[in-house]
Write a structure and sequence with these properties.
Elements lengths: L2 H12 L7 H30 L14 H4 L17 H17 L1 H4 L6 H11 L7 H12 L6 H19 L5 H4 L3 H11 L7 E3 L6 H11 L10 H9 L2 E5 L2 H14 L5 E4 L16 E6 L9 H4 L9 H12 E12 L8 H13 E8 L12 E8 L5 E6 L18 H7 L8 E5 L26 H26 L1
Parallel strand pairs: 1-2, 1-4, 2-3, 4-5, 6-8
Antiparallel strand pairs: 5-7, 6-7, 8-9
Helix pairs in contact: 1-2, 1-7, 2-7, 2-13, 4-6, 4-7, 8-13, 10-11, 10-17, 11-13, 15-16
GO molecular function: methyltransferase activity
Keywords: Methyltransferase, Restriction system, S-adenosyl-L-methionine, Transferase
Catalytic activity: a 2'-deoxyadenosine in DNA + S-adenosyl-L-methionine = an N(6)-methyl-2'-deoxyadenosine in DNA + S-adenosyl-L-homocysteine + H(+)
Length: 489
């Protein structure tokens, strides 16, 4: 129903001089979607208040509501072209009046968890990049066709928005920066098995894929697939999901993605997670579960490194320390990290592996195949661990989908079924094995993935092919020598 509308919006933005990539299309669509969502939400709440004979206090002043400036309607409900701003007038209004008004909400909000604060934060970070007021008017009319008034509509919109995030993640950038493959996230959640009442945290949220998938999992009754009670739904909405994100665009997308999945006021904070000193993390800000795919390959400045006991410039290693500290005792984590973490010989990597193995039970390592993350040139593993008990044994699973992964052939849920099934009992198979803690080299704590079940087959070549290769090599040698001779003659 909405897919064509999104395509039409992209076509409009593609023709505008201010938008040059999939990143811009998603960013610009996001702020318009957010305001349309807010208008539909306020409309629904005002209707509910009217039924209860109560007065609803609108968040947005009437003159700045979507239905006043973006999509004014006539008395008959038709689009009011006579009173709709367009051209330079529309651009001037959006840039000089609307955005400054929305940005000011941050100062007026009671606390960061309110929708008012989120409005201020989003419009303090994002800019209108659409240069033509006529393009903006066309885009607004298309966005106005979208509806957020039923669960089915939100579900469909969330699905299309996820596709946009996926495309954006592959728009000439590191695919893992914005988009972690959803089948991988779902498998991670299936292993961790969150429960209602537990808090779930991602300190490197990106587009909030982990929290959205965890919400869907719990909303459908978790592992038991049971119907949730009203108080459980309230816990799910308000006191379950927590996130931090450093980048402005990802922050806006994370909020919009969570809203579309059904979380009305997401607890996403726009901050550099690593700027927080580890000593400042107390039991009050620890979580039951950490799910994350932190950025890797980045370098952090010296002052940021001072926040951590194990000093390193590698962003992912700092995040690992942050996640361990952010877990409650007995808390569970599933974290994606590049596979070199398992074997790097620098002091920080060795110290971090020792810390992880001694303070947590690193019970499972999932070895992911190349191109699991489109656009990322590194191989990754997923670490599953429980805080507060030392590692006794680690179960490895080498994921092999039996084909080369790529843009047209991505990871799917079936690829991970065997992993999830075998992990429950840490069963051995051709692709899985266990290593006891006592067998690790205590000078390096090396955890390299070496499948002991792989049989090294020696393939003997046919004599005829060996002879043919020798003849070809001889011919190449003759040619090279002849050329050298010409130079000196």
């Amino acid at each position: 129903m909405f897919e064509q509308t999104f395509k039409n919006i992209d076509d409009i933005l593609h023709k505008d001089a201010g938008c040059s990539s999939e990143l811009d299309y998603t960013e610009q669509t996001s702020w318009m979607l957010f305001l349309k969502y807010l208008d539909d939400l306020e409309f629904a709440k005002s209707q509910e208040a009217e039924l209860m004979m109560e007065e609803y206090k609108f968040i947005i002043d009437e003159e700045h509501r979507w239905s006043s400036w973006a999509a004014p309607k006539t008395a008959s409900g038709e689009f009011d072209h006579d009173n709709a701003l367009t051209g330079d007038d529309l651009i001037d209004y959006v840039d000089q009046e609307l955005f400054p008004y929305l940005k000011s909400f941050k100062q007026r909000a009671d606390n960061p968890n309110t929708i008012e604060y989120k409005i201020g934060e989003i419009f303090g970070e994002i800019k209108n990049k659409i240069q033509s007021g006529y393009s903006l008017r066309d885009a607004l009319e298309k966005v106005d066709e979208l509806r957020f008034r039923s669960q089915e509509e939100k579900h469909e919109l969330s699905h299309i928005y996820e596709v946009k995030i996926k495309n954006m993640g592959n728009a000439g950038r590191n695919g893992g920066e914005y988009y972690t493959p959803r089948p991988l996230i779902r498998a991670m959640i299936d292993v961790v098995q969150p429960q209602i009442g537990e808090t779930i945290y991602d300190g490197a949220a990106g587009s909030a894929g982990f929290l959205c998938e965890a919400y869907d999992y719990l909303r459908q009754g978790g592992a038991e697939k049971r119907k949730l009670k009203t108080d459980e739904l309230k816990i799910l909405q308000e006191r379950t999901f927590y996130a931090k994100e450093k980048k402005s665009l990802a922050y806006v997308i994370a909020i919009m993605n969570m809203i579309l999945h059904g979380i009305e006021a997401p607890n996403v904070i726009h901050t550099n997670t690593l700027a927080e000193n580890l000593q400042d993390i107390t039991p009050n800000n620890q979580y039951s579960i950490c799910l994350a795919n932190p950025p890797f390959g980045g370098k952090e400045r010296k002052e940021v490194q001072q926040n951590f006991p194990i000093k390193t410039g590698e962003t992912a290693f700092l995040f690992m320390q942050h996640f361990i500290k952010s877990l409650k005792p007995g808390g569970r984590a599933a974290v994606v990290i590049k596979n070199t973490f398992l074997s790097n010989t620098d002091n920080a990597a060795i110290a971090l592996r020792k810390e992880l193995l001694e303070s947590c039970n690193l019970h499972t390592i999932l070895d992911c195949p190349a191109k699991t993350f489109l656009g990322a040139g590194v191989k990754t593993v997923v670490l599953f661990f429980t805080k507060g008990e030392p590692t006794q044994s680690t179960w490895f699973y080498q994921l092999d989908p039996g084909r080369s992964l790529g843009k047209t052939n991505p990871l799917n849920d079936d690829d991970l079924k065997e992993f999830v099934k075998l992990q429950k009992s840490f069963a051995d198979s051709d692709k899985s094995w266990s290593i006891p803690f006592t067998s690790l080299d205590q000078s390096t704590w090396d955890l390299s993935v070496n499948n002991p079940n792989t049989k090294d087959e020696i393939v003997f070549r046919e004599p005829s092919s060996i002879i043919e290769e020798i003849i070809n090599l001889d011919k190449e040698s003759e040619l090279i020598l002849a050329n050298i001779q010409k130079v000196f003659s």
